[in-house]
Amino acid sequence: MRRGLALMPRGASLINLARGGHVVDADLLDALDRGHLRHAVLDVFATEPLPAAHRFWSHPSVTVLPHVAAPTDPRSAARIAAHNVDALRNGRPLQHLVDRTRGY
Question: Quick check: is 100 catalytic?
Answer without folding.
Answer: no
